[in-house]
Amino acid sequence: MNLPHLHLILNHVPTIGTAVAIGLLLLSLVRRNQQLTRVGFEVICVVALITLPAYLTGVATGMELEKLPDVSKAVIARHHDQALQAFLFMLVTAGAAWLGVWRFRRVGNLSTTNIVVVLVLALLTMGGMMTTATLGGEVRHPEILAPGEIAPTAPPAWLSAAMVQRFVLDNTWVWPSCETLHFIGLWLLFGVVVLVNLRLLGVMNGAPFSAYHRLLPWGVLGLGINLVTGMFWVIATPEQYMTNISFGLKMGALMLAGADLLYLTTFDGPWNVKSGEEAPALGKAFAVSAIALWIGVMYFGRMLPFLGNAF
Amino acid sequence: MEFIYSLQHTAAMDWFRESGSLWGYPAVLFLHTLGLGTVAGLSGAIDLRLLGVAPRIPLAPLTRFFAVIWIAFAVTAASGLVLLVAEAEAKLASPVFWIKMTFLALALVNLRLLRTRVFADPRIDTHPIASRAKVLAATSLLLWVAVTTAGRLMAYLEKGPIG
Predict the structure, then answer these.
(1) A56 Cα to chain B: minimum distance (Å)
(2) Is the ipTM of this complex over 0.90?
């Protein structure tokens, strides 16, 4: 098993997963069942979490494939551009879906606007992912192209990886600015995550978990800032990260920490912890793992230049 | 100053900078980051609460976090001191370093004021949050952003031996 192999396994999830979520959302509208809508939103969050390694292993695969004589670099680049665009749509869709799930906890229903926004975003994401999948197929399956066509079959994307790379590398202020934002995002996310999880660990049992749950969007904002700034670096200098063991460990810890973050909102265990009550054992286990994993994300991030080769 | 410069060139500091051991420079750099994440993160979360986010979190139990923040600050300051000594000549000559120290001093005074002026009040959870408390929360957030910004820019505006 190597990164290209992992890419071939993961790359189906964004397309099929988003399609499943859209199906659930449409069904929930027909059945007028908001519990089903919530499930659709949760599926989108999980699919987005898996889209991260699908995208990153794709970048690594592209770097490997470019060394081979019989592949078109233009097709690989076009596939990457489309993937980048679709991934950004996926992140925005997941952000809107997560906010919906978070709000559902508090008010017990979802606004029509929220459902329509997520549905439209999910449709756009799925369209982008389907084009990405087609273009990805063209990299290694010339038999799906029309005779005489040398690909890529799609017109240039409005956002290209090369554009982002030039923006970061040609402007000396971009990298330090991303660093600054990445560290502000780091403490915003870490502070919120620690405080909310400490409630589960019994540090402040005087108030219900729901009171602390209100802080979470600020942590998710920090996570969003760090995903975007982190992607600037990965696109600008992929060679620093794709062969870097510390980056692989950081992304692994990040995915697990992301799952812990979702747990706080999607499962009933934490939410049902009332004023004066202890959290259930499972909730405590998730809380310990969340704090440990975010510290791990920080550690392997800081070790990028030392365990690996990044500057 | 001369004393700090002489420390920079001791065998221990040479090892710390140049050995390549994960227990040297990288470990201390990580502790500095973890400390920052805890100090600014917990302060930031308390500031957000004072500014009106998550209004049902009782304030009085948050008082205990001031001790945690100061302990985390001790870790940040100790690791920062080692990082400073390791590259004393470059850092002490850098205006950005002194700007960072100025913002840090202000942020610590702000933290102390939050503890003594806002959290010392026994009626903290029964009365609406005073506008003075909100101002202190806002300046606290801005100052931690400023400290973080200056700290990050130190690595880019003057490149030390490690960067």
Answers:
(1) 25
(2) yes
